[in-house]
From TrEMBL:
Catalytic residues, chain numbering: K10, D137
GHMP kinase C-terminal domain segment(s): 203-276
Domain GHMP kinase N-terminal positions: 67-145
Residues that bind ATP: P95, V96, A97, G98, G99, M100, A101, G102, G103, S104, A105
NCBIfam families listed in its UniProt record: ispE, PRK03188.1
Protein name: 4-diphosphocytidyl-2-C-methyl-D-erythritol kinase
EC number(s) from the headed UniProt entry: 2.7.1.148
Pathway field: Isoprenoid biosynthesis; isopentenyl diphosphate biosynthesis via DXP pathway; isopentenyl diphosphate from 1-deoxy-D-xylulose 5-phosphate: step 3/6
Similarity comment text for this entry: Belongs to the GHMP kinase family. IspE subfamily.
Function: Catalyzes the phosphorylation of the position 2 hydroxy group of 4-diphosphocytidyl-2C-methyl-D-erythritol.
GO molecular function ontology, one term from the record: 4-(cytidine 5'-diphospho)-2-C-methyl-D-erythritol kinase activity
Taxonomic lineage from the root: Bacteria, Bacillati, Actinomycetota, Actinomycetes, Kitasatosporales
Length: 297
């Protein structure tokens, strides 16, 4: 018997970042949108914990106990006093180290898959608690849709979305480390007053209406200057997408994936093609959102 869970990537339509806290984390107002690029995690009983991974970026994924899928299985088994004897196979389509929460997605998917396989019967609250222990983005990977994350980004409130938004994602030739981008944010912020992070009412209204033009006018990412400082070539990708007619162009989360909001599916295909021939990025993908979070298939 095995259990497969499908789990989406995310884009941050707003990422407001506060000053560094004493614990090193930053308070956020993080508006997440789940988009239709998916990993699948399959859990099968095994003699011991084992991780395998397939997909274009599989070579960059750790297969030891640092993998977020492994950490999820260990965390759940630890709470029940059982051994995490499971084979977790990750079919990976979400870019690795791309700012689209790929590792977090696998953590949430593995947790749900193991809970189902082992019949551990964790409540939604317990699953969310374990997700928050695994990482700031992991709870959102479980719930999907659209949500505002505060605190480290792990305390979620679901958001209404009045339509489907069409996106293009441009992958970069190399990854960016999330902690390094937050450190660069701190360096760039030195000597400045950092306001409390708050969600933009206009952005929340644009999401609720499903209005792509209004959303394009309000998207923002406080980590973007830091990501561009560490990876200046991303400015060329953003410009290429804007020139191709994207309504908005921004770095996704901590980057280096860049995200382009378009009016409809046809416009998304046109912007994607222009980015492919621009020579400013790696693979280009089209995806719409919101979509559901981690789901047992
Ligand atoms: C950039 C985002 O992807 C936006 O959604 C997230 O804030 C990052 O979430 P994540 O990858 O799940 O991050 P975590 O595994 O919790 O933390 C990794 C590192 O990122 C930094 N970090 C993360 C979240 C946060 N609110 N403040 C931080 O400063 C810290 O250096 C932390 O050690
Ligand atoms: N299941 C996993 N898939 C991918 N990377 C993983 C996984 N587990 C651990 N990692 C490690 O996490 C690092 C970041 O990968 P990930 O794909 O989660 O980045 P990200 O999409 O930028 O994350 P986020 O958007 O949450 O900041 C990788 O370089 C890898 O070493």
């Amino acid at each position: 018997m095995s259990v497969t869970v499908r789990v989406p990537a995310k884009v941050n339509v707003q990422l407001a970042v506060g000053a560094a806290r004493p614990d090193g984390f930053h308070d956020l107002a993080n508006v997440f949108l789940a988009v239709g690029l998916y990993d699948e995690v399959t859990a099968t009983p095994a003699a011991e914990l084992r991780i395998t991974c397939e997909g274009p970026d599989a070579g960059q994924v750790p297969l030891d106990r640092t993998n977020l899928a492994a950490r999820a299985a260990i965390a759940l088994a630890g709470r029940r006093g059982i051994e995490p004897d499971v084979h977790l196979h990750i079919a990976k389509d979400i870019p690795v180290a791309g700012g689209m929460a790929g590792g977090s997605a696998d953590g949430a998917a593995a947790l749900l898959a193991c809970d189902t396989l082992w019949g551990t019967g964790a409540s939604r609250e317990e699953l969310l608690e374990i997700c928050a222990e695994l990482g700031s983005d992991v709870p959102f990977s479980l719930v999907g849709g659209a949500a505002l994350g505060v605190g480290r980004g792990e305390r979620l409130t679901a958001l209404e979305v009045g339509g489907t938004f069409h996106w293009v994602f441009a992958m970069a030739g190399r990854g960016l480390s999330t902690p390094a981008v937050f450190r660069e944010f701190d360096r760039l912020a030195e000597g400045r007053d950092i306001p409390e992070p708050v969600a933009s009412p206009d952005l929340l209204a644009a999401l609720a209406k499903g209005d792509a033009d209004a959303l394009a006018a309000t998207v923002s990412n406080d980590l973007q200057p830091a990501a561009l400082s560490l990876f200046p070539e991303l400015a060329d990708t953003l410009a290429a997408g804007r020139d191709a007619g994207a309504l908005a162009a921004l770095v996704s989360g901590s980057g280096p994936t860049t995200a382009f909001l378009t009016r409809d599916a046809g416009a998304a295909e046109m912007v994607a093609e222009a980015l492919r021939v621009s020579g400013t990025c790696g693979a280009v993908r089209v995806a719409a959102g919101p979509v559901a979070g981690a789901t047992v298939l």
